[in-house]
C-alpha cells in the first residue's frame, strides 16, 4: 500500500506547508518517482490539469531546481543509492 500512502501524503502537502514551504522527496522506484513528478508538475497523478479561459492552470506547487541523482562515487560506495532521485518543490 506504499503507493496509496504516497498519494495521500502528496495530496495533503499543499495544506500542511506554509506558502513558500519546501517539499523534498527521495524516491527509489520509477513508479514512485513518476507520481511525485506528475504531482509537482500538475497537482494530479495522471492526466492534465484543467485550464481557465485564459489558458492558465492552477497548480499547488512549483519545481525548484533540477532532479538530483547520486554521483558515480556515491553509487560506488553505496550500491543501493543508484536508483535514488531527489525532487524539490515549493508551495505556491
Number of helices: 3
Main beta sheet, described? Answer: 3 strands, antiparallel
What is the tally of beta strands? 3
Termini Cα gap: 29 Å
Low-confidence stretches: none
Mean pLDDT: 92
Structural class: alpha+beta
Strand order of the largest sheet: 1-3-2
Judging from the principal axes of the Cα atoms, what is the shape? elongated
Q: Strand-and-helix sequence, N→C?
A: HEHEHE
Keywords:
92 residues, elongated, three-stranded antiparallel sheet, 3 strands
Overview of the molecule:
The mean pLDDT is 92. The protein has helices at 2-16, 30-42, 72-77; strands at 22-27, 61-63, 85-91. The chain is built from 3 helices and 3 strands; from the N terminus they run αβαβαβ. The two termini are 29 Å apart. Strands 1-3-2 form a 3-stranded antiparallel β-sheet, covered by helices on one side. The longest helix has 15 residues, at 2-16. It is an alpha+beta fold.
